[in-house]
């Protein structure tokens, strides 16, 4: 820490003071404490004795008691913040203290109500924090004017400001985390889950609209002309409404994330919306995969990743100011992701490095989830071979991406033992399954390593 922000109180000056001077210091310090309390109790009104406050700061600062002023002011902010703002903030969520039970019982209070409560609680505590920051700025300016007078204007208040606001931010985060109720992370997860499901519904609607638009473009030109003559204005208004709805939702989520970050919940917030995204992606993979093995689903899953979570994350990162282009460098060091092509991002010209990292995480999770689903049903898939070839191809791509080939071998060996090599299995079924297994595994692994491992069992 710089000298101007870490020097101790100059208590040696007290030896040169007489009784009247000491009494003056006591009165100034008491006046400073009273003025500080008046500021903190101002309920948004900073006109509560600013001139008197500055006067006391100047008097004490000239005697080298600046650290004493700072410590008292920060401690007073902490006590006020903890006693009033924090307790009221957590009180909003008391009704969800048994959140896991409410979720398990599917109590119908966990979506719009959670959103309203979270927004209101964050709005109140953020306003209180902004007011306290304004109070802190008053102290910074008072110290600055005093130092400038003492040093003939040669004083840089930037270090003082950074020091005080860093201490204040640490205090805010510490007080909140020390009193954090165990159900709050679940509340954040549920909030982001609900908002992402809402966004997904909007995006799915856009995809359906695009498909319908494509169908219209395939109509006869005369019919298309007639259709557009009567419907164009309606379609344009509808699409604009969809875009506005999506944009408004993303901005709302972005404000919630920004407010949570400001309170020191950065990591918890990222974990909450990340878990919500992965939960939504898992449900989407399960829904698309189903038990139909005669069509490929991998490209549909990857397309959905581009359209829903990556679009949301791109907009969120941009709103928060975290959208840094992947081709930018820091301290002359080029990221390994900089060589990744920027094509293939729905609605994004140049993806940020953060967005590319998210895409890699989401795609790996999708590959692994689909892979596990297909491995669990591999016996049934091979029974339907060659009609189930698309599912086999999907599984091949998943294994190439994840490298988890041992899962397939272990699971399929277990399935063969319990479902095929039993007393009730007919010879024809065994032979048919044997031939289909060879063909399917040759597709997945042309080298024959899987077959060799199966043969050794």
TrEMBL record:
PANTHER family found in the cross-reference section: ANAPHASE-PROMOTING COMPLEX SUBUNIT 2
Gene Ontology cellular component annotations, sorted alphabetically: anaphase-promoting complex
Any single GO BP term: protein K11-linked ubiquitination
Protein name as annotated: Anaphase-promoting complex subunit 2 TPR repeats domain-containing protein
Alphabetical list of InterPro entries matching this protein: ANAPC2, TPR_ANAPC2
Domain Anaphase-promoting complex subunit 2 TPR repeats: 357-454
């Amino acid at each position: 820490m710089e000298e101007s922000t870490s020097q101790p109180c100059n208590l040696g000056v007290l030896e040169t003071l007489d009784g009247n001077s000491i009494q003056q210091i006591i009165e100034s310090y008491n006046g400073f404490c009273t003025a500080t309390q008046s500021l903190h109790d101002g309920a948004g009104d900073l006109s509560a004795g600013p001139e008197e406050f500055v006067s006391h700061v100047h008097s004490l600062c000239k005697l080298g008691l600046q650290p004493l002023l700072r410590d008292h002011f920060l401690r007073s902010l902490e006590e006020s913040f903890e006693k009033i703002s924090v307790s009221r903030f957590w009180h909003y969520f008391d009704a969800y203290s048994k959140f896991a039970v409410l979720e398990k019982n599917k109590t119908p209070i966990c979506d719009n109500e959670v959103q309203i409560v979270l927004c209101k609680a964050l709005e109140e505590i953020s306003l209180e924090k902004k007011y306290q920051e304004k109070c802190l700025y008053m102290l910074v300016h008072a110290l600055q004017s005093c130092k400038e007078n003492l040093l003939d204007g040669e004083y840089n208040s930037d270090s003082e400001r950074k020091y005080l606001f860093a201490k204040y931010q640490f205090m805010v985060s510490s007080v909140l985390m020390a009193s954090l109720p165990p159900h709050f992370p679940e509340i954040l997860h549920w909030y982001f889950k609900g908002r992402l499901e809402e966004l997904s519904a909007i995006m799915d609607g856009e995809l359906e609209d695009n498909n319908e638009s494509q169908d219209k473009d395939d109509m006869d030109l005369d019919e298309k002309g007639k259709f557009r003559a009567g419907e164009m204005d309606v379609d344009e208004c509808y699409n604009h409404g969809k875009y506005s709805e999506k944009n408004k939702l993303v901005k709302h989520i972005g404000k919630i994330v920004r407010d949570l970050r400001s309170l020191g919940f950065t990591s918890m917030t990222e974990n909450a919306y990340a878990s919500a995204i992965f939960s939504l992606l898992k449900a989407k993979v399960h829904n698309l995969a189903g038990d139909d093995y005669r069509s490929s689903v991998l490209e549909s899953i990857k397309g959905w990743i581009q359209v829903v979570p990556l679009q949301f994350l791109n907009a969120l990162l941009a709103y928060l100011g975290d959208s840094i282009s992947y081709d930018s460098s820091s301290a002359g060091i080029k990221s390994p992701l900089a060589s990744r092509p920027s094509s293939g991002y729905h609605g994004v010209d140049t993806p940020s490095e953060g967005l590319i990292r998210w895409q890699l995480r989401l795609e790996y999770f999708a590959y692994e989830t689909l892979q596990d689903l297909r491995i669990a049903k591999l016996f049934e898939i091979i029974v339907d071979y060659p009609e189930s070839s698309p599912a086999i191809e999907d599984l091949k791509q998943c294994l190439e991406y994840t490298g988890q080939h041992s899962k397939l071998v272990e699971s399929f060996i277990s399935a063969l033992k319990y479902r095929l090599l039993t007393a009730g299995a007919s010879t024809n079924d065994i032979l048919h399954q044997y031939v289909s297994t060879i063909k399917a595994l040759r597709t997945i692994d042309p080298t024959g390593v899987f077959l060799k491992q199966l043969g050794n069992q």
